[in-house]
């Protein structure tokens, strides 16, 4: 009735212990890889943290970092245990630790799986964060004299140059905000004053974009001003317009960049999870095989190893009963109102019963 | 009289052979590193090949690549030789090859040193090449419709953005050439025609720069047109404005970049050269000590190892004599066979008739 029962001879047990020792050390290396991947993702997110609104996306790299460190410790301990398991005497040292160790590792492995799935699920939260962050970044582009926002202009320019993008969704986003500070506007000029008065909020809006939106692929010098006015520039046809500025929005560009990174990381973490599961299964077989050998008495005999002693349903039931009994013990001791007949009252009842037939 | 004589016991010889085997394999790795450094330099130079005029600078990476490959081959052979040198019987196989091998390696090590020095001396030619190349690149910036120059605009823009530089010596280089093509100038506008007429060559010159010269550190939006005209922009003084455009010239920026690369490579090659020299010295000691052991007959006895058997002057003199006698042998042969006019007295005895009596000297008066 055991789940996944396999018989192990002595030589097979020793071989299993050696192989598991090696696999545990490989798992330490994969744990370091996990840690490094988490660190890499954290650095990448921090690089463009100024254009993201909240930092809620940082829980993914933090999860990966802690899981990687935990993997190193757990697998290091597992390596030591498996090395000792080849010898039945040394196994006695670890006998009591092994069951808790396996349970811990099982929960830890599910954390690794959670980490992998998180990498894939973060996309929508990232998109929202980028949308708000980029909108604010563009709004504060001109505030190079405000503490805390001095370098936002530089960050946005570098972003647009490096990722070959312009604006949030497209270059027209720049038409809707004032990106030239009033410090650099000549307030005595009538053109400037007219433009400031032409809209409700008194902002200097224009159909122009910063220089970082210029495409390096364009055959003609960059046109940054009067983009909506076709007649302002000679031979400004459809093709010239297409090639003049970067067409993609920066939100889409950054989203693609981060999605690519996180899909690769997620795949690697999934592979690591499968490997850890394999190692855990091997350790479980080794533990049960060694315990059965000790029960039989002779270290050179064959023994059975399994994953679960009974079927899954029975296991769940017995564990549930254990937990219920734990609960029941506490209940009986505490409640004083339950009517429990004592031994003295019983004797009184029986003596009254004896008296009645004598008088009648 | 030997130069740097050292005594070697049998165990010392064996230890030396083993150590030299490991060092030779490390030298193979350093040869591979040398090869990859040469390849890296070649790729970096070709990346910006459009901006350099002549290509005389290609000899430096080519030299490094060749030297790296030869180092791998020579040290691989050296490793095999040193591995066999532990056993005196196996050494007999290599005995005749070892001296030529050592001489070859000596000349090769000299090539490595030349390669290292070349890295430091390349700077002057590189500067000249960059100067001419950048001048042409800026002049052909506008020719995006001419085959062969279509991508020069993109190359120059990417260069200025990436290296944070503008123009050849500075941004004023852009004022002296026409960087906007006539295709994009409105010839019907009076202002354009005036500007074209205002200079001898009929070029559209302006005090403006392309967008790639814009400095991302500037607190204000980039001023690209009418740079020298203070009144055209509010609150702007171009003499004191340093953050608006990139101030460094691209020739200076590229020169610094390549000089930095070549100094690092030159240092690595010098260290490789010192290492190769020490390996060569070890192999020479091993060769001389093994030959002396063979001369003595007993493979287990002590023997001497040296760099040169006699002092340096004597070795040079003997080698020169060998070369001279080689030349003289040739000379004597040709004069015997070629020149009939040399009076060479024959060695055969004169035969004076059947009784072999020399003729009497005829004296006067008898």
TrEMBL record, chain A:
Q: Which CDD domains does the protein's record reference?
A: peripherin_like_LEL (cd03162)
Mode of membrane association: Multi-pass membrane protein
Alphabetically list the UniProt keywords: Membrane, Transmembrane, Transmembrane helix
One Pfam family in the UniProt entry: Tetraspanin
A GO BP annotation: visual perception
Query: Which GO cellular component terms are attached?
Result: plasma membrane
Domain of life where this protein originates: Eukaryota
User: Membrane-spanning regions, if any?
Assistant: 20-39, 59-78, 99-123, 265-286
SUPFAM superfamilies reported for this sequence: Tetraspanin (SSF48652)
Query: Could you confirm whether the keyword Transmembrane appears in this record?
Result: yes
Which locations, inside or outside the cell, does it occupy?
Membrane
Q: Say which family it is in.
A: Belongs to the PRPH2/ROM1 family.
- From the Swiss-Prot or TrEMBL record, give the protein name: Photoreceptor outer segment membrane glycoprotein 2-like
Species name for this entry?
Stegastes partitus (bicolor damselfish)
UniProtKB/TrEMBL annotation, chain B:
Disordered: annotated segments: 333-366
Identify the keywords attached in UniProt to this record, alphabetized.
Membrane, Transmembrane, Transmembrane helix
**Comp. bias regions, Polar residues:** 333-349
Localization: Membrane
Q: Which GO terms describe its biological process?
A: visual perception
Q: How does it sit in the membrane?
A: Multi-pass membrane protein
Q: By what name is this protein known?
A: Photoreceptor outer segment membrane glycoprotein 2-like
What species is given as this protein's source?
Stegastes partitus
